[in-house]
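Bit of a strange request maybe. I'm writing a small parser for structure token strings and I need a real example to test against, not something I typed by hand. Could someone generate the tokens for this chain?
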Amino acid sequence: MPKGYWVVLSEVIDGVRFMQRVEAGLDALERTGGRLLVRTEAEVRAGAPKRRVAIVEFESLAEARQRFEDPAYQAALRIFDGIVDYDFLIAEGAPEEPLAAGRTVSPSWGVARPPETG
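Reply from user aminoacidic:
Good idea to test on real output. This should exercise your parser:
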């Protein structure tokens, strides 16, 4: 079964207040049971996304959704109101089996056969 992920893109608005609350945020994250895979400032190569990125892994998409909706986690998110501007995405990981032979990932993110060459 594919894993579930939280992908959080953020910009800190108030650095002083953020640093005062970051431990509480990390404690709340730890209580979700997710595994923090990434927590860093990203190197932006295209576009203008928020620069800070965090990725948290869960055993399934259902668990990622359930943990986000937990009232205790929602309360923890509110401590960052007005301090951090963020986008919060929940996504399903890729299937664990490899792509079938002869298949490639198309630009539309679907799986397609490569064009015939002759």
